[in-house]
Amino acid sequence: MAKTDIMGLLTGVSRQGINPMSPSASSVGLSGGFRERMLQRGAQRAERLGGAVRGMLDGGPTAQEQIATRLVEKKLLEEKNNNKKKRILFLLQKKDMLTIQSILI
User: Fold this and answer.
1) HSE-up of 102 (CA within 13 Å, CB side)?
2) CA atoms of 97 and 12, how far apart (whole Å)
3) What is the per-residue DSSP string for 4-59?
4) Domain ranges, residue 52
5) In this structure, is residue 6 part of a structural domain?
6) Which of 1, 27, 66, 102 has its CA 20 to 30 A from that of 75?
7) Residues 37 and 56 both lie in one domain
């Protein structure tokens, strides 16, 4: 009995597999996977370009600038809270409750 490629019969894909770089008649010279990747890359580049243009035209900060600003603000707030905690611990060791109350308010 001859070897039959049951998976190939069911899916239409031979044992050789699919080459994403080979042309396909169904998608104007580009195979489906390759074409999808190219479309996705184009969309990402368009989005980046839009952010750059908005930044140049003072249309507001780009997403990357907003993220960087938020990270710096968060770090400064954490440092401020850590300094406050250190001062409270120091005053607790000295048992200076009046100063601690003024810090907490």
Assistant:
1) 6
2) 80
3) --HHHHHHS--TT---TTS--GGGTTS-HHHHHHHHHHHHHHHHHHHHHHHHHTTS
4) 28-60
5) no
6) 102
7) yes
